[in-house]
Amino acid sequence: MGVAAHLGIDLVEYDARIRTFIPDYDLMLDVAARAIPHRARTIVDLGIGTGALAARCRAHASDAHVVGIDSDGEILRMAAERIPTAATFVRGSFLRTRLPPADAVVASFALHHVRTRAAKARLYQRIRSSLGASGVFISVDCHPSADPAAARNERQGWTTHLLRAYSRREANALLEAWSAEDVYVPLASEIRLIEGAGFKVTVLWRRGPFAVLRGNIL
């Protein structure tokens, strides 16, 4: 399924609509980009989308070459327009595409499409193998609390954000559709998965169900 079909939007609306879907979207991407080493030479973006995170990373590490991987050819063309130089775009699933040697591997709202924790664990092992000794892995995604009461509060906060742009019926329908299609691993479990691949994990930012995580190689 392409990004437009998954979100139920016209792809040209993506950059505007994503902010109505996800609270603190720009802030999270800024936090993630600032975690990239200034001297990074190769940044691999898993599920690059329109290139919003990759462009921020390039602004922070200006000498870096971006390798963007995405299975959606149309959205890759949008990313290429956003990052027209010092970038390579690969159409394919990041679960199967070879990851080149890199100084940083990043992902924003892409890894919740991985259906099983076993598949995620394998992906994190591949990411670890692609990184140099000082490489970093940065992930921006939805990781709700494992505590049911806390998770309900987080969902209510997400609903409140959606109600700024949508009716309650629309907001509830969006959340139900996403929860059926996406896999939101609780934060503590996600950290254990990343640590299991040989990373030390730092929570760089956390608000509601959303988090920015950095993994440094042990």
Side by side, the strands of the main sheet go 3-2-1-4-5-7-6
Helix and strand composition category:
alpha/beta
Q: How many β strands by DSSP? A: 7
The largest pleated sheet is described as: 7 strands, mixed
Q: Level of helix content?
A: 40-55%
- CATH H level, superfamily name: Vaccinia Virus protein VP39
Strand content is 15-25%
The helix/strand series, from N terminus to C terminus, equals: HHHEHEHEEHEHHHEE
Q: Could you say what the CATH topology is called?
A: Rossmann fold
Summed up, the domain count is 1
Offer a few descriptive terms.
218 residues, alpha/beta, Rossmann fold, 9 helices
Verbal overview:
The structure is a single chain. The chain has a seven-stranded mixed sheet, sandwiched between helices. It is built from nine helices and seven strands, in the order αααβαβαββαβαααββ. The longest helix has 15 residues, at 148-162. The protein has helices at 3-7, 14-21, 25-34, 52-60, 73-82, 117-130, 148-162, 168-181, 187-196, and strands at 42-46, 65-70, 87-91, 102-108, 131-142, 199-207, 210-217. The mean pLDDT is 94. The protein has 218 residues and is of the alpha/beta class. It has one domain (3-144, 183-217): 3-Layer(aba) Sandwich (Rossmann fold). Helix content is 44%, strand content 24%.
